[in-house]
Amino acid sequence: MSAPSRSLDWVERLWDRVHPPRTVYAHCDIPCGIYDPHEAQLAALTVIRMDQLIGELPQPPTDSKPEERAAYSSKMARYTAVKEQHAELVKQQVRVIWGDYFTPDHLKQFPKTSDLVFQILKQASKCRQGIALTDAQELLKLVQDFAEIFWQTKGVATKRQPSMQKPGGELVVPVAA
Questions:
Q1: Which of 50, 116, 134, 177 has its CA 20 to 30 A from that of 80?
Q2: Separation of CA 75 from chain center
Q3: Over the stretch 12-44, which tens digit does the pLDDT of each residue have?
């Protein structure tokens, strides 16, 4: 290492001691432009399916064997955990698209977007708290509305097509021009 390099290194270390660098935290925030509400829709469908499975799960009779009660409890715990994970995934996906993709111009063009995002976040929380199938279906509807707005901001037409998944429902998908 040359003398000027060592001197510069010494000055930088001294500067860092006098003015310590701040720690910064950030999400990726690379303007890649790759956003798609499809994952949020699939997560909402999963919430519906878990509520369906919970509703279909027969409670063991009071005189059942410990293994039967354990099997019931295990299934209920797994269904509930998956439901909650996917409700949270809906929130995370919508927050990222809303926060990283939507611009002030988009919000002027679609002024109800902020309120829609708020409704989605609240509805996903409601789905985590309960097992009402109607709440899960409402979450999917809100996410579909969000998906339609998202694609409109890109000037892309959409259509609703059957999800072809066990819970039924539809997915909002872009239509190639």
A1: 116
A2: 24
A3: 776 667 767 665 444 455 667 789 999 999 999
